[in-house]
Amino acid sequence: MKRNIRFILLLIKLKLSHMMVFRLSFFIGFFADGMLFAVQLLTFQIIFGQVDSIGNWGQGEMLIFIGTFSMINGLNMFIYFFGVSNIPRLIRTGGLDLYITKPVNPLLRLTFENVNLGSAPLLIFSGVIVAYGVSVLGAEVTAPLLTGYITLTLLMTLLYYDMEVILRTLPFFFIGTSAIDRLEGELIMLNFKVPGVIYQGVFKIIFYFILPYGIMATVPTQALSRTLTAGGLLQALAVVVFFTVFALWFWKFGLKHYKSASS
Questions:
Q1: In Å, what is the CA distance from 257 to each residue of 169, 170, 172, 210?
Q2: Tens of pLDDT along 101-143?
């Protein structure tokens, strides 16, 4: 564990050194994430601005939901997206050879080698929206409640990571990847616009247990608004544990079927 932590810190240090050489990349990332945040706010205004409630959620819960989704996406972009998103290209070109021949877990290196500090402002903006949502809701935020919210947000970020790894492990078995990217994009946009609390029947099964994007921002929002039940919490934790275990197993299974482009 200590060795892995030292390795992660080294990767981050190397990334920072690289960013100091190419400073323009940082500001381009900052601008892109700022525009994404503006689009998210505009989407909220268009979809939710003309209604008082969706399901049993009012404006306060919906603001927290938007801020939480943006927070999870910001953590995704900040920590692992730009590393994990390279997996299909590395599989296709044989570049993965350079990772699996090193004495370091290849997934660990892929996860942390492209940390994007340009996404940090998005986390701040998202926190502001969550705080505003709490004020609109009129909720009293205690230290245990805030700790629970932060913990669940981090767990949902892990679930987001699990889904990215699973989808990007599929190219071990077939060449085409554009459909995967489109599917992921559509799922994210749908569940960014639609709170999970309105899913019923088969849709709840799909977006809570099969493609669990529906719980990612919903569960932390329910926790902060004090509407999360003990059963809902246990259900969410079980989903995170299952997909984390499956993602790690599926990645190892994919590596066993990897055929180097150089072979």
A1: 11, 11, 7, 24
A2: 877 788 988 888 888 777 777 888 889 889 989 998 888 889 9
Confidence band of 24 (pLDDT split at 50, 70, 90): very low
Q: pLDDT tens across 218-260, in order?
A: 999 999 999 999 999 999 999 999 999 999 999 999 998 887 7
Distance separating alpha carbons of residues 148 and 206, to the nearest angstrom:
26
The structure tokens listed for 162 are: 């699990």
The dihedral over CA atoms of 239, 244, 249, 254, expressed in degrees to the nearest 10, equals: 110
First to last CA, the chain: 33
CA–CA separation, 12 and 115 (whole Å) = 7
Nearest CA to 41 out of 133, 136, 138 is that of 133
* Element (DSSP H or E) covering residue 50: none
d(CA 205, CA 211) in angstroms, rounded, equals 9
- The amino acid present at 110, given as its one-letter code, is L
| Residue 57, strand partner residues | 54
Looking at residue 45, its pLDDT comes to 64
What is the DSSP code (8-state) at residue 174?
A: -
Distance CA 219, CA 60 (A): 15
Kindly report the pTM of this predicted structure.
Answer: 0.85
C-alpha 258/C-alpha 88 separation (Å) is: 12
Sketch the domain layout of the chain as residue ranges: 2-48+58-256
* Contact indicator for 12, 112 with CB cutoff of 8 Å: yes
